[in-house]
Amino acid sequence: MATMEEQIKQIEEELRKTPYNKKSQHHIGRLKAKLAHLSEETERRRSSKGKGSGYSVRKSGNASVAIVGFPSVGKSTLLNKITKAKSEVGAYDFTTLDVVPGLLEHRGAKIQVLDLPGLIKDASKGRGRGREVISVVRTADMILLMLDVFETNLKVLTDELEAAGIRLNTRPPDVQVIKRTRGGIDVNSTVRLTKLNEDLIQDMLREFGIANADVVIREDIDEDRLVDALATNRHYVKAFVTINKTDLVTKAYLHEIEKRLKKWVVVPISAETGVNIELIKDQIFDTLDLVRLYMKPQGQEADMEEPLVVRKGTDVGGVCDALHRDFRRKFRYALVWGKSAKFPGQIVGLEHALEDGDVISIIVRR
């Protein structure tokens, strides 16, 4: 009987050889589901055995950013430029053989930036310690995709991340699967499904080992999105692209690269000379969706020097949790000044969503 790794290779080969059309869609959908299920199980077994030595990174700061790129694109130089880290720099491949963290302090936020060994083709399959590198990438709150101005094949990087279950600049599928003990698989949708039929959905669930479930679908998904909904190892994260060494080319050359990458937010830089370094700091802060809140203790002036940095969409309850474990339990009301307030000093409750620059005073029971 074939091992899991052999089965995965056989399915990958069959998927490569099978042309996608209306007749083959059902077969391909089942293969993709089976492949994802086997890959998950293989990953689970590998983790339980503790196979291989991974990188250990202790998270710190308000958020973390992973710099992902090919070897020798200037990741270490950039890290050294935007943080106080000292990552070894060399003009040859694989200078960074470990994960080097640095702390970017910008607009009141403290952001951990990770310089990782370069990714290469088939990194998702373990080549060049790729699995260990990707395991660190999966813990990051944002990914900075770094390219050399003379090597701008972004697809190799994104394909490796995609193969490892990392989804860039997208949201999880709006699909709910509630397992049950009997009764088969019932599929209900709130939208018209144009890409999948009920039989294929049921068969793909069975390939995932799900025989009885209620399925509710709220978007017009395809096979890949359904696989993502069923898989448990998907990581959804924001990303943007920076192109390094732009001081070595003409504006026309750079413009052509940016045209090819028009679907992405692109920040051209020169890490060596410092061109656009402040711009890339701003883009990191904005992509992370961080907001600054200024705390005003009752009866005192607001502290406008040291903001509380939180994620966009944080409400007053979230601020209470960040400040002290007893604040939510003892909460009476809060006073808010700023963009989220209808008028200065508005009295609000725990569910009030806050915006960047708000001043907040939390009143608790004594």
Summarize the topology:
Layout: H1 4-17, H2 25-49, E1 63-69, H3 75-82, E2 100-106, E3 109-115, H4 130-137, E4 142-148, H5 154-163, E5 166-168, E6 175-179, E7 185-189, H6 198-207, E8 213-217, H7 223-230, E9 235-244, H8 251-260, E10 266-268, H9 277-287, E11 290-295, E12 308-311, H10 316-323, H11 327-330, E13 331-337, E14 346-348, E15 359-364
Parallel strand pairs: 1-3, 1-4, 4-9, 5-9, 7-8, 9-10, 11-15
Antiparallel strand pairs: 2-3, 6-8, 11-12, 13-14, 13-15
Helix pairs in contact: 1-2, 2-6, 2-7
Keywords, separated by commas or semicolons:
single chain; 366 residues; alpha/beta; Rossmann fold; Ubiquitin-like (UB roll); 5-stranded mixed beta sheet
- CATH topology-level name of the largest domain: Rossmann fold
Q: In the CATH hierarchy, what is the superfamily of the largest domain?
A: P-loop containing nucleotide triphosphate hydrolases
Q: What is the CA-CA span between the terminal residues?
A: 68 Å
Tell me the series of helices and strands, N- to C-terminal: HHEHEEHEHEEEHEHEHEHEEHHEEE
The percent range for strand residues is 15-25%
Q: What is Rg?
A: 24 Å
Based on the structure given, which CATH architecture of the largest domain is correct? 3-Layer(aba) Sandwich
What's the total helix number? 11
Shape: globular
> Could you list the spans in which at least 5 consecutive residues all have pLDDT below 50?
91-96
